[in-house]
Amino acid sequence: MIAAQAKLVYHLNKYYNEKCQARKAAIAKTIREVCKVVSDVLKEVEVQEPRFISSLNEMDNRYEGLEVISPTEFEVVLYLNQMGVFNFVDDGSLPGCAVLKLSDGRKRSMSLWVEFITASGYLSARKIRSRFQTLVAQAVDKCSYRDVVKMVADTSEVKLRIRDRYVVQITPAFKCTGIWPRSAAHWPLPHIPWPGPNRVAEVKAEGFNLLSKECHSLAGKQSSAESDAWVLQFAEAENRLQMGGCRKKCLSVLKTLRDRHLELPGQPLNNYHMKTLVSYECEKHPRESDWDESCLGDRLNGILLQLISCLQCRRCPHYFLPNLDLFQGKPHSALENAAKQTWRLAREILTNPKSLEKL
């Protein structure tokens, strides 16, 4: 048993050193290329409208606010200033979303974003995004990369297609630190010893972001309050949770397997599903020794089996907001197909670790 485990870990490490590192290097090269173009566009936006200041800065070889959705798809979060005069209202009526409401009607004129405040005092995510989209469209025509960049049409999101190969979504957002959403108040679960009080304090201090983007849980419901709502995002908190042991390596292997074998019609799976399942696996295996390098095979198998279960049940709850289903809106046939493909992959890896050389 131990010999089989060791064999799997050996082949996984080989896979990580060859395939995963090659994927990382290729994506890093793409990111540099993409960020040059995006920075140029945002510089033009800032000239027209100084309230939209580019926050896309490189630090320690990574760009703050950039998320890799797939090797050809990225999201850049543009942090806005001055949320100050608004209260964060998160009553659970909009799963995965919250609203920003003026703390006092008299402060309306003090807000930097006065013309985007609705009559009932909400700062409208949709109105800000609509204005930003207009500015980006104008900037694309003026910027020095105008020959290689185009706006993606037929969406209320701000998306750029670069060199006909890459898609980058630019999402206006507010960073919320020092508060924690009521809809995530159940976390951490009281009976689970992971991640421990110090890490919990760090994660909660990291806070979350409020993004101006289409919320899948609201698809089809278009009352004004809902289209004014902001989407909750916990990228930095999740990154902080997944530090230590072989967690990052495990996620890297999962992302590489997804890119190579689970990029399927209907796009049922993305990197974020993998990241979410790693967080759940951390809860199931709370001891640090469970994430020792020698346990990499066990953890990977556990996550693949959990993924199959989620695909078969057609439900993948968000880690911090379990009322939000990350499979919402995905075609059932696409989820079934993904379950079959994941099962094939898991069986192959488990019964014949050497097959990783070809995967």
Automatic annotation (TrEMBL):
Q: Name one GO cellular component term.
A: nucleus
Give the highest taxon in the source lineage. Answer: Eukaryota
Query: Does this UniProt record's set of keywords contain Zinc?
Result: no
- Write out the entry's keywords from A to Z: Developmental protein, Magnesium, Metal-binding, Nucleotide-binding, Nucleotidyltransferase, Nucleus, Transferase
- Cite the Mab-21-like nucleotidyltransferase domain residue spans from the record: 62-241
| Coiled-coil spans in chain | none
State whether it acts alone or in a complex, and with which partners, per the record: Monomer. Homodecamer; composed of 2 back to back homopentamers. The protein may exist as monomer in solution and oiligomerizes upon ligand binding.
| Name this protein carries in UniProt | Putative nucleotidyltransferase MAB21L1
